[in-house]
Each structure stands twice: as structure tokens, then as C-alpha cells.
Fold these 4 entries.
Entry 1:
Amino acid sequence: TWVGGAAGSWNDSANWSGGTVPAASEVVIFNTPDAVVSVDADTTIKLIRAYAPATLTLNSPLHIVNLGMQGTDIRADLVVNGPSTLDFSRNGTSTTDLLDLFVRNGATLTVNAKLTGANSGIETWAADNFMNGTYVFANPPTIFPTPSASCGAQSSRSPRWA
């Protein structure tokens, strides 16, 4: 959980509960309103949960690795800026698990950074108007050539390319 206040470096252990920078297997939580966080070293995490508005500036790549049936849960506005990349990737050999982006009602996920992924895709869920937030991708990646979403039995929404 981010405890670094309104601004700081992702890579500074003093900015995280427990005094350590999140590892690849960990969930990152933002609940400090209007936190502005810079990612200054190549970083891999399990997923992000935004419970308060936050802005990430990616000076180095941020990798979010899907572990299957895990969701990046956006409950407040989250903006992800470049100049580096936001990378969504599958973990392992699954050909069906995609990165689940849960953007809740009233929240917006805006990705202005370059979006990449290895053997990946994004699922957007909008079941029962519960995950009916707004998705904005300013740099449509080649891995998602057209706005589309897939959610099995769940209803789905297509992301909006800015």
C-alpha cells in the first residue's frame, strides 16, 4: 500500500507500507487521494487497486502480470502517463486468461503511456452495471488492433481509443 503521501518515487521503500517496494507477486494499493507517483526503475507487479485518484508517471516500464482470475480494480480515477510503457502480460502458458481490468462506476482509467503486452489481451467487465467505468487508451497498441473485449458469460464493454 502506498504511504508516500501526495508525491514520490515508486522505487523508494519509505513510500510503501512495510518499508519495501512491492514485488512481482504483490498487489499494489493506492488509497492516498491524488497521489502522483513516478516509476523510475523497471518494475513488475501482480496487479493494481486504485481506491483514491492517483497518477503514475512511467519513466521506466511497469509490468502487470496476470495470474488468472485476478483483476486490476480501479475504483477511483487512475491516470498512467509515459514516457515509458505499461505492459500487460499473461503469466504462464494460458491461452485464455487475459488481464482483467475492472473499472467501477464513476471511475476512469486513462492510459497515456505506450501500452504493450506479450501474448496478452484485456478483458473489460461490466456485469450488472457494477464495473461500468470508463476506459481511455490514448496510444492504441498493436496487440489490441480494434476496440474489443471478451468476458465469457459476463457482459462486456469495449475500451475507447482516445
Entry 2:
Amino acid sequence: MGERYAHRNPLPTFLHRFRDIRDYTNPSAGQSTICDVYRESHGDSNNSGSIGHLFLLDLAEQQFNGTAMKFIACTLGIWIAGLPILAAAKLESVARDPWRGAIVVNAADGSVLFEDNADAVGYPASVLKLMTLLLIVEQVDAGLLRLGDRVRVSAEASRMGGSQVYLKEGEVFTIDELLDALMIQSANDAAVALAQHVAGSREAFVRRMNERAAQLGMTRTVFVSEHGLPPSEGQMPDTTTARDLAKLGIELSKHPLVFRYTSIRERGFRNDSFIMRNHNKLLGEVEGVDGFKTGYFRAAGYSILATAKRNNVRIIAAVLGSENRLVRDQKARELLALGFSKVPKPAPLPSSTPLISASGIPTLHESSIPGSGVHSRITGTSSESLSGGSTHSPRLPPDPSQEVADETLPQDVFGRPILWAATLGAGALILGAAFTRIRRKK
């Protein structure tokens, strides 16, 4: 793809990736499969290794049901990915503990309820796909696009690495299907296909992203891509701040159609031959959460723009650049809870409010309306607004009951040759069994 690469030392990369996979064995992680977290953690990578090991993870997930079997298969895939591969340009990490920056706002009026280093610049990674979503949803709402419009996949889109739905050149999907892939699977190939269809070229679409960001007052945001992948050598990274992400979230929350895509936990693609699983693990775990999106690559850290709606109050929380995925998710939970605690609950509806219209047709309850927090597709406060100045609040106090569990495996585990041999041997057997099953099905 015209990109230049440099070799990197495989061992530290491998150790880091294996640590992420171990999160699957930790019940507090709240994961249903082994490969989901790894796919999020290392899907934002546009190199030859990423395509191979993500394919191996998908194979493991489809072929094996047992947690232990999946663990070994994924471990083998990550080991292969840790071999000397061609890597994109190196960026210095901006991730911090617990975050690079964070902010909580009331979606109704943009008032800032909490912030900490909210103007620190970081890398949004796949969170920026929310701007891609916003531009398309705005055109759908304006009648310029239809969800049923058909998009033909280009050769360039089919070659995108990282998290993907493996689009093939010449395939045709609807905008609706590709938006599902964009938000649920965080598919980079879907992002490219949509950008090319909507604006004629990727470059033209990115220009629209920056123009819209300027209109929203996202003054410290610069987009260079429609997907958020780390840059190739010689390219600049996408940049933003927690405050700018919150501004994007406020605009997204004005469009009920947005939640049609950000609230889905799992969905099939390509006639259910490929199962997409959302990387936002707050869905179904935190009351009222119906969006928005997570993002990660190594230098960026783990980020999330999250939102929840309770009692007709919508809170938006942005965590940018956390060093740890579990910490990011936990802090997002705490920030949402803090936001709701600072917004007075609205008065209940009068008891005389009719639930049946004059025609006898039942009226729609708010929870049945997209964007209200429940959807048919789901299987001291500050008066300062985001458009005004900055309001500094103290950092959230730690909650001992919510601490992330310590790692359970010894740090020197990969210094043991026996474990190396056992892992490779078991992985080879599993792959052999998988391909045997595939041949039998044929």
C-alpha cells in the first residue's frame, strides 16, 4: 500500500499482547469470549502481521467452543504476531494512568460535571469512527442518503488491515450493513468503503470530517483518516482531546439513528457467516448505556466515549488515553455514575397523563424510541458548558471495591522453555483439528 515499515523487537510486543489475552480468564473483565479483547486491543494495526493473527483469532473463535481451547489458539496467534513483522511508524505513547484526559457532561445543555486534563491532546484511535458515523447519519436524516443505498467495495477498502469484516473487492452491501460493521466490529474496511461512497474519495471525506469538527468547536482535533489506524511512516496521527470528544458526543446524541448502531452488542454479518461483537463492554453491564464507542492502539492507549440515559437525563463521559483497558472501563462507569449524581432527577409525569391516545392507540413509551436507552435491536455541579471556559474538578476518589484484579500469571512465564514448547505444540494440534473439521464440512 505504498507504506514504509521498520522491524521491531518481537518479545516485548508478545508479552504485552499475552497480558491482554489473560484478561479473558479474569471474571471481572466481564468478557464472553477470549478473542474479543485482543481484537479490540490490537485490531487498530495496518500491517501484514495484524491481518494474519486476526484471521487466526476469528478461526479459533468459530471452530472452538471451550474457553481453554480458545485461549491456547489465541495464544498461538499472538505468538505468531509477535515474531519479527513489518510495523508502522513508531509513535511515542501518550497513555497515562488512569487517563490522558477525561470529562463528563450533561448532553442536554453541555454543562461540564467533571473534568481532569480535558484539553490534553491524545490519539482517538477508532473512537474517531464516530465522526464518520455522524457525517453519514446527518446525510440520512437530511434525505441525501438512504440506509438501503448499496455500496460497492473498492480494491483499496478490501486491503485495509486491522479490525475488519473481510470485505472483498466488488462485493455490495447497504449503508445500513456497513454502519453496523463500522460500529460493532469497528471495521476499518467498512470505514473506507463508506467514505469513498459518500464523498467520492477518502481524502474528500476526511476534509468533511475536519470541517464538521471545526463547526462543532472541536478546536484541538485534527483528522487524517476515516478509521483511526496508527499512521504509516511519514504520516501524522489523528489527534483530539477529551473535551472535543464530548462535543462530538453531544452532537451524536441529537440523532436517534445513531443509537441504532452504537447500542448493539452482537450481530451477524454477511448472512450471519461472521459474528460481530461490540468492543464497548459497558453495553448491557451499566444501566442505560447505549453508546458510543471504544478505541485503542499502543501509543494511543485505551479510550472510550460513553453515554447513558436514565430518567430522561443523558450523561456523556470521555476517557482518552488510559494505559489499561479494564481501568478505562471502570473509570467510565465511575464517571457516568458521577454525572448522574450531579444532575437533579426530573419531576415524574403527572398521574393524569394518558397512556392511551384519544383514538385508542397506545402511545409510544420513551424506552421504545431509538436513543432513549432501550432499543429493539439490543440482543457539586458546574453550570459551565463546553462552549465556555474550563471548570476544574478534583480527580475521582479511588473505589477500593472496584479495583482491577491483579494479574494472575507470573511475569517470567515466557522464560520457561517448557511452556513455550507446550504452547506451540498445543496450538499446532488445535490448528490441525480446525482445518480437519473444515475439510470434513466441505
Entry 3:
Amino acid sequence: KTSGWKNYSLYIQNYLTEQNITATLALGAENESVSGYAFFDNVKIDTSITEETFNDVVANDTNVYVSNLNSNWLDATDTNDTPLLWTQNVIENEQSANIYSGIIDYRNCEDKFAFINSTPGKATEDGSNNSLVINANSPVYVEYASNLTYTFNAETYYKLSVFVKTTNLTEDLVDDYTEDGQLITHGASIIVTGIDTNFTSINTANAQGENEWKEYIFYIYPTESTTSTIKLGLGCENMPTAGYAYFSNLNVSSLTEDEYNNEILEYDEENLPSNVLLATNAPKDDEEENAGSNFGNFDPFAFSTIIIAVAILVAIAGVFFKKFYRARPKKAKVVNNNYDRLQTLLKDVDRRERKTAINHKIKLLKEELEQSREFLAQEIAELQKQTDSYNTAKEIAKDNPNVQLEVPDVKQIQKNIEAQTIKIEQIELDIEILEDEKERINQQAKKDVEKTTEKLSKSENKNRK
């Protein structure tokens, strides 16, 4: 039986993302083999479609397939629960947690997935039935990074939103503290690279302890054009988390200046709600730190020894920096000679709390330092292995012109070595600073005791007289 010719159209809207798209013409499909003939003709690509035409097609034409790359509903194929156009990265998993993740449909997830203890429900009434879930039974930092990159043009207004729901969150076994002793809470995270602020420690439980879907919104106005990647995670850097994190209905859109101003007028910019951020470009230092190395057409193995040497030089420079830090003069403090018992007691309590926070931070830094040293050793060993392998292949290729020599891409390994070397030095310096501060607290406590004893002694002598 022969069928007639039929026209198929695919409309794609894309004004924010950079993505290479391949069109495949085939007979049959993956896991669906068929026999017969398929004829294709008159394939056209038209890039002159206006936004008005596209919107009209979306609203009225049911005979075309429409794809909007600016909205990512977090979908998967029918035969695979892995998110399309997303890559999973397990960044922290010290306790070898069991990690379960993927795209689920709230209508059948409890039957299909054993690790789902209750359905998350639907984020919005008119939104997707699907959501991305990340679950771990002990603290982890796991993220899904978008394979699509999003371009935010200078002096243009954007809105990025995603619905999040968390359940059964369990913080790390030991609470974490900031440098000034504030308790850090753990939770889900939404990271957008290239901007100056992000969501971390997301916990969607309300005041009654009930978990519900909540929309998290970035209003972005970059002063310079930037290209970003979106990362959805359970936990974040140095704040591993156990439990469930669900994400749904991710959307990125551009706004007019009036639309942007009208939306943010609802908020007090000095006291924004926890689910709204006003963002711009990341500071230059952060961008430079995150920028990848560019080796052009050079043979990367020619620099492997230099990279390792640079790592050693950075470590040596750090030693001199620490010596400078230790040698720098301490600021003098003026002490009131009037003895105040209450003030002394409060000072002692504050001192103990600071020492507890410092000891905890030192413990975490030492653990992180050990991990970084192990990772650095592995990366150096891997670079040396690939260098040796490449040099061997090079020798073989000299005597055999038919052998095609491929240069493996080791830019990421070199970048990891550079980053880990700097990170190790910074951690060592942080530990040194905290140890010095702890010693300073001990010395100050000793001096306070001596002064208090001296004042009490003088007071007793005065009373005797």
C-alpha cells in the first residue's frame, strides 16, 4: 500500500539558548524497527519566522510540532527516565549515599519507583505533570546541569523561574557555621552561572511543617552580555543534604522594561521574599576564576610538566604568604580598667561559642583538605599517564605514516590541577588563620583572668585597710 506525500512542519522558538540541533530523516525509530520505503523531499529551513507568526501557530495550528527551547519542562523519553538535555554531577558523597533521581510523572510515580514515598503532586494546575526528583539517604551534593546554555544580553531584562518542592530534608550530622558563627541551613539549590546571586538552602516547608510547591524567581538585568548554565541540585557546595528535592516548570523569558518594573514593584528591594532574587553579572574575579584555559592549537602535553611545576610554585608562594600573615602586626585594643563581673561572664560565654564554631570549621576544612589532596594526586597521576601514553604513540607514529595520531583533550585535567592546587593553598591558609584566632582567644582569656585576679587582689587589700 502506497501513501501520498504529506507535509510535516517543526517550529522552534529560541532566542536565549545556544544549541546545535541535528535533523535526522529515518525509516523507523529507536526501538521501533519497520520495513518498507520512506521518501523525503523538499526539506527547508526558514529562519525568518516572526514571533507573531510563531505565537499564531502555537495558538491555532494542530498539525505542526512546536518546540520552545526557552522553556524546559524537564521531560524524558518514554523508555528512559533520564532528563533530556541535562547532565547529572555527583559533587559530594562522602558517606556513599544511595542516590535516586530522574524524571517522574506524579500520577504514577509511587507505582513505578520504589524510592518515592509519596507523590509530590503537580506544581501548577496548567503546568507539566513531570518533575525532576533527586533523592539521597545521607548527605550529598548532587546537581543536574543543563546542556543548553542561555545567553543574557547586556541591558536586557529577563525572568527565570522554576517550581521547587522539598521533603524529608535531613541536614549533615554536624551543623555547619559561617565564619561569623551563624548556623547554615541545608536544602535544595538553583544555580545560574555568570550572575551574582543564587538560591541555596531551599526548604519549602511552611510554618506548619507542610511541604508544598513554591516558585523561585530570578529577575536578571545584566550590564554585560553573559552566557549561563542552569544547575538544579540537592545540597550545594560545602552543604550536603539528604532527602528529596523536586523541580518542575522551568521557564526563561525576556521582559520589556515596563514588564520588569511592574513585576518587581510588588517587592521591597531591600527586603525581598526568600523566593525572589534580583540579579546581574557576576563580579569579574568570579568570571575569571570560572573561565576555562585556552591552549589554542598547541599540543597540551607539551605543557604537562609546566602545569605540575606551577602547582608546586603556587604552594611555595603560599608558604611565604602564611609567614607574612603570621608576622604582620596585631592591632592594639584599648581595654577599660573598670571591672565589670557581668561583662566578664558574657565575654567568657562569647569566647566559648566562638571557639566551638572555630573548632568545627577547622574540622570541616581538614576533611576538605584531605579530599582535595587525594583528588589532586589522582589528577596528576592521570595527566602523567596520558602524557606517557601520548609520547609512546608519538614514537610509533614516527615510523608508521599510516598511523593517525590523536591528541587526547586534557584541558579539563590541567584545569582541575590548577584549581585544586589553589584550593589546597587557600584551605591551608584558612586553617592557619583559624588556629591563630583560636590561640589569640586563649591568650586573651589568660590575660583577662590575670587582670581580674589582680583587680580582686587590689580590692581585697583596699578593704583590709
Entry 4:
Amino acid sequence: MRTIGIDVSKATLDAALQDEQGNVVKEERVKNSTSGLRTLLRKWTRQGLCDTRALVCLEPTGHYSHGVVKTLVVMRYPTWLAHATDIRLSIGMQRGKSDTVDAPRIAQYAHRFRDKARLVGQAHLAFAELKALLALRERLVKERAKDKAQLSDNVLHLTGSAKELMKAELQRQAQGPGAVDRPSSTRPSPPSCGRTVPCSARTSWPKVYRASGRCWSAN
């Protein structure tokens, strides 16, 4: 079985392909994107270097590797998320640390321990997305609690219109995350001098004042 080691970073993917004897036959760097990975694997397939039976191994790096795993699962490549510590311990003391060096090491690890591979699939992707959503919700709830506490402290020391604004924001947040500001059903009518204004002169008025058809001014 041929193995592919992928070292994932924020912007790029370093991939190394090993043959059945454990020799590196190809190394390339592509952009960390769905199109970049698809193009690379399809090119290697056309060149006869690998097919969908090749075991792909990479380290889990959070949301940077999530898109890589999703692409591999959709393309039906057997995909193994190996822990970085296990890879380091299996190889032993090594000199040098770079993405181009790590990719062959990951491929070598997959080749040596392919019988212990734990493959991931659609269930893993669904769980990872749910986990990310729960983490986001927890972070937003904490931020909201901090904001409410800060606003409550500010209300104690502010006066006038600033205090009223703080109170209004606290009441809005107390209604829950789904609460939105709705426009009032009744609007105050603009001051009017009583003169009727032609329609051609109303075009520059705000929409709320156009229907009245009367001149308004601060005088």
C-alpha cells in the first residue's frame, strides 16, 4: 500500500508520497484549499503514482486540517488522523524541523504503522463541526456575560442620556440572543409650519416625512 503524508499549515499543504517499499517518490507543496488538494491528487492519479487505495496520514490541526479531511473523505481516500506525539516518538530523535521534512516523516509513520490506522469518515466530520459550534456558543455566552457585567458597572457611574443608553442595552440583552430592535409602530410627526409642499420638493425628505406632505423645520 502506498502512503501519503500531509503536513498542514495555515496557508499551504506539504505532501509526500511513498511507495510500497517506503521510498519517497514525490513531494509537492500546494495551497491549503479544496481545489489545491483535489488538483494534486488527481494529477498524481493521472501520472499513475497513486489511486484512492493510498493511505493518507496527517496530524489534526483544528480548523486548518478540517477542510483537508473533508476533501479526502469526499474523494474516498482512506484517511488517518495521527497524533503528533505518536509520530515523533515512533521516529525517534531527529534533527531539523520544517514542513517539507515533516511530510515524508508522516508518510513514513503511516507506512510503518498502517496496520494500526484508525480511519475517519463522515461521522468524524459531523462530530467535529458540532464540537466547533458548541465551542463557539460557549465563547459567545461568556463574552455576553462579560459585556452585561461591564454594562451593569457602567450604569452605576453614569448619568443622563449615557445612563439611559446603558440601561436600554441591558434590557435588550436580557431578552435573549434572538431579540432584535423593532421600529416603533407610531412615529412622532415632524414639526410643521402648516404650509403644503409640492410633491417635487419632497424627494429629498426622509421617507418617514414624505407622506405628510407638509413643510417641517426647526423654526
